[in-house]
Structures are given as C-alpha cells and as structure tokens.
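--- STAGE predict ---
source: upstream dedup step, 1 unique chain passed
mode: sequence only
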Amino acid sequence: MKKNDCVRKCHLRVGDSVLVLCGKDKGKRGKVLALSHRESKAIVSGVMVVSKHVKSKKVDGESGIFKTESAIYSCKLKVVCNNCDCGTRVKYVLNDGKKKRVCKKCDGEISVNRDIKKKKKHRGLNV
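--- STAGE serialize ---
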C-alpha cells in the first residue's frame, strides 16, 4: 500500500457550516459541498473562488472564463456550532449506542444540514 493511498479521518461532513481559519479567505463562512478524504480537502461554497478558462469541445458548447470553488485543506476549516454560532472543535459522545457530534464549548449537538444536492460535474465547472 502506497503512502498516499491511505484514507484519513476528517472532522467535517457534507452540509456542515464551517469557518475559514487562514489564507486569503480568513474569517469567511460557508457550507461544505464536497469532501476528499484521500487528500484531506473540502470544497466550501464561496471560499477559494478561482477563474477557469474553458474552451468548448463542441461547436455550440460553452466557452469562456467561469468562477468556481476550489478545494481547501480541511485543517484550515473549523466547524461552526448551531447553538453558540462560533467556530469550535468536535467531540463525539455515545448516547443510547449512537455516536453523536457535540460542540466542545457549549456541549450542544452539531446537526448536519443535508439539503445540499450533488452537482453534476461538467469539466469541473458549476454551470
């Protein structure tokens, strides 16, 4: 097994609201759209927006410069608690045999908003 083939645990889940800790988008908040456990990266709405230059492959296809979110390392993100509305670490508690995520600061349960629909990939663009 290669070193890069291992899958790492991640404290984030799709649908979590997160706070960016460092970089050019420091202090911004957004929702996790996708996760890559292998690379320890996440795609967050409104964070790490880059311009992609696209050339159309079909005669009537779309071409131009498109804005899209790029992946950011998950270590630079902190989960935002629903109750205290601040960035926090996550601890896990067993209740009735079920593992639940809990805020370290206020001991409130961190629920995941699952209303995010999976986007169709169109050459890595959101069009």
